[in-house]
Amino acid sequence: MRVCFDSLCFASDRLQEDGDDENHCEIVTMSNGKVITSEDMATVNVQELQTLLSAREARIRELEIQLRQRDEEICDLRSHLDKFQSVFPFHIHNNNHLNSVANDNSIARPKKQRAQGISAEPQSLVSIQELSQQKFNTFPKNDRSRELIKAAILDNDFMKNLEMTQIREIVDCMYPVEYAAGSLIIKEGDVGSIVYVMEEGRVEVSRESKYLSTLAPGKVFGELAILYNCKRTATIKAASDCKLWAIERQCFQTIMMRTGLIRQAEYTDFLKSVPIFKNLPEETLIKISDVLEETFYNEGDYIIRQGARGDTFFIISKGKVKVTIKQPNTEDEKFIRQLRKGDFFGEKALQGDDLRTANIVADDPEGVTCLV
Questions:
Q1: Region 326-342: what's the mean pLDDT?
Q2: 159 pLDDT higher than 50
Q3: Is 242 within 8 Å of 201 (Cβ atoms)?
Q4: Which residues form the Cyclic nucleotide-binding domain (predicted)?
Q5: Do 234 and 305 belong to one domain?
Q6: How many CB atoms lie under 10 A from the CB of residue 236?
Q7: Is the domain of 360 the same as that of 297?
Q8: 247 and 165 within one domain
Q9: Which of 169, 153, 124 is nearest to 259 (CA)?
């Protein structure tokens, strides 16, 4: 009995030790004095890892979005670069022609960087009277469509410098066309005769069968073919059902010619009223008017600053300016005189003297317009 009792006591002690081992947890004291067990520590570590993983996944998604945006920007810039490269020879030819005009008449063309406008292709000679009497087919549009077309033109690198009168006529003459999803709208390499503005839907742009970009409503496409007489630079397909507005090359160019000839006649008549030009031959005046550009200044704007270097000759076509000279050893300016429509300034630039000797300040509440 003694042996059996001792055996039972030994077994009981072992069972109690095993139970203590199973219930034992390591005690950890945190730096803030809080006491947690090893099991709690494991739970905290898992939560921290999950938080880190969630943060990294969010960062990855953010970087992926940025990458897609940059890819889209690269595609857009490549598209713009291709467009500019495709018309670069045209600009070289055009600039050489304008420079030759200036040299032939011994009048230095201003070196000021001028905004690139739109040049219609040469057509048979017609009179201003014939162009002014020509009627265009116009198509009704609601205000939303008209504003969308106007905004699209002003957002386009090649058309944003059109005059508002030209834009209004283009908007009036654009007609509606629709394409079903999958339809071919423009084929790369073809000779184009239509420019489009997207109102509804999406189109995909590709070159040499490689996807470039997707265009959404409010975009112009197909403009290069009618502006510069070049072949289509890309293929455009309808990615969804599309509603577009379109205008034919002939109508577009007639609008450009009409405004251009009317402006040329106005400039030529104005130059005849300017003493320095009034005795020049008509042909010379026409060539000068072809290279003139209107520049607008608000009241108080400095058109010329004394002491600055410049190479531009100005003719006032609207408004008034004041001539002032800076007083020595002071910031004050002495009023010299006032110039009005038909007066000119900066003529020394044509004689090789590029240092401005006085200030010319716009002095009209309605602003000043100069031909440069």
A1: 88
A2: yes
A3: yes
A4: 158-273, 276-362
A5: no
A6: 24
A7: yes
A8: yes
A9: 169
Which residues have C-beta within 8 Å of that of residue 44, sequence separation ≥ 6?
36
| Structure letter (DSSP) for residue 351 | G
Q: Are residues 151 and 240 in the same domain?
A: yes
Tokens of 326: 């800076």
Backbone angles phi, psi at 297, to 5 degrees: -130, 135
297 and 244 in a common domain:
no
Is residue 288 within 8 Å of 277, Cβ to Cβ?
yes
Same domain, 302 and 350: yes
The β-bridge partners of 220 are: 197
- Rounded CA gap, 317 and 193, in Å? 37
The pTM of the whole model exceeds 0.90: no
Considering only CA atoms, which of 117, 127, 94 is closest in space to residue 166? 117
Q: Given the structure tokens 């000797």, which residue do they identify?
A: 357
What range defines the domain where residue 138 resides? 128-256
Q: What is the CATH number of the domain that holds 309?
A: 2.60.120.10
Assess whether 311 and 230 both reside in one domain.
no
Specify the DSSP element, H or E, that contains 60: helix 38-104
Nearest to 244 by CA among 204, 181, 207, 195: 195
* Residue 188 domain flag: yes
368 Cβ neighbours under 8 A, 6+ residues apart: 296, 297, 299, 301, 303, 316, 318, 319, 320, 321, 362
* Tokens encoding 119: 């040049």
The two three-digit tokens of residue 188, written as one number:
């790369």
Number of structural domains (the chain) is: 2
